[in-house]
Specification:
The protein has about 130 residues and is mostly beta strands. About 0% of the residues lie in helices and about 50% in strands. Strands 1, 2, 3, 5, 6, 7 and 8 form a 7-stranded antiparallel β-sheet that branches. Strands 4-9 form a two-stranded antiparallel ribbon.
């Protein structure tokens, strides 16, 4: 494998122990673990910021390399637009979102991060009132 651009690619960690790089896309049909590097100047750059997400096939690890973000959990059912602040994550820190948690992310500062998750089966719901 040749060098790839971290911020436009994702790495698929396959069941057979090999790793493959491909263009970044969030698809619910992805099998196995995926590692994605992201660079965002604003929350809107995250593309999923307007939505609640849940990854029932496994936990998600958010590793912040620079900048800072806030992670919110939905606690009031489908009508809960904002959620409850669960964590502030800064440079050199990581946070594990359990597979059963509806969550969303907001930036506190422009951020570079690495996210590791099992994207297959990801559920997405629009935030009400937004």
């Amino acid at each position: 494998m040749s060098a790839v651009d971290l911020f436009s690619s994702m790495f698929r960690l396959r069941h057979d122990g090999t790793v493959g790089a491909e263009e970044f896309t969030m698809r619910p049909d992805l099998d196995g673990w995926t590692a994605v590097a992201m660079r965002a100047e604003t929350t809107a750059d995250l593309k999923s910021a307007a939505n609640w997400m849940r990854h029932p096939d496994g936990d998600e690890v958010m590793c912040v390399l620079s900048g800072a973000l806030r992670i919110y959990y939905r606690t009031g059912g489908g009508e809960d637009a904002d959620g409850e602040l669960r964590a502030r994550v800064g440079p050199g820190q990581a946070f594990v979102v359990p597979s059963d948690a509806w969550h969303r992310v907001e930036l506190e500062a422009p951020a570079d991060m690495v996210v590791v998750l099992r994207a297959g089966g990801t559920l997405v719901e629009q935030r009400h009132g937004r």
